Amino acid sequence: MHPIELISITKRFRTSEKGEGEITILNNINLDVISGQSTAIIGKSGSGKSTLLHIAGGLDSPSEGKVLCKGTDFASLDDKHRSALRNLHIGFIFQANLLLEDFTALENVMAPALISGKKESECKDRAVQLLERLGLADRMSHVPGKLSGGEKQRVAICRALMNKPEVILADEPTGALDEENAAEVEELLLNLVKEEGRSLLLVTHNQDFAYKCDNVYLLKNHGLTKEK
Description:
This protein is α/β, with parallel strands linked by helices. It contains seven helices and ten strands. The longest helix has 18 residues, at 179-196.
């Protein structure tokens, strides 16, 4: 069993509120996210990469097909249980980092574990360990507005790892970073996969980053083609 399996995924959107027409974004896509491997999806802007990633993480639903997370079909769950399954097995990293602006780096990282019902002391210990590991020991008490772009993204990575997820889903994680910070984030993510046996599903325009992954797929004409 793979951590995430996409089976015959098709996604259509209505072209008007009245539903008079539809456009197909994804068509009959099959993809296994394999434990201990990194997988990149490349493609032009508007090709549906982010939509596919959101479907893989249960943030969006396909028009047809199934998404299995640890063998459980997301569609079989109500919102509460779907969120719980996501929180337990999946960590998300977004280009915009989506940190809570009024909370410190430490509090942002602790949030997923607190939501899952873990004790605050246990959450704090792990959050501190993660922030220290990613070179943010002296930035824990800073709110996002006081952090650099690279520091914010490292906080976002720590938050994604807080609940020890089997799968990390990353949407253009280096898109808003300069070259130096982008290289740092790339190395961190790929090393986490190798060192801890996690899985990474990445969508990116950065082909250099993509081809450092174990598997590379091109999303074009609504379908996936394996490039590596």
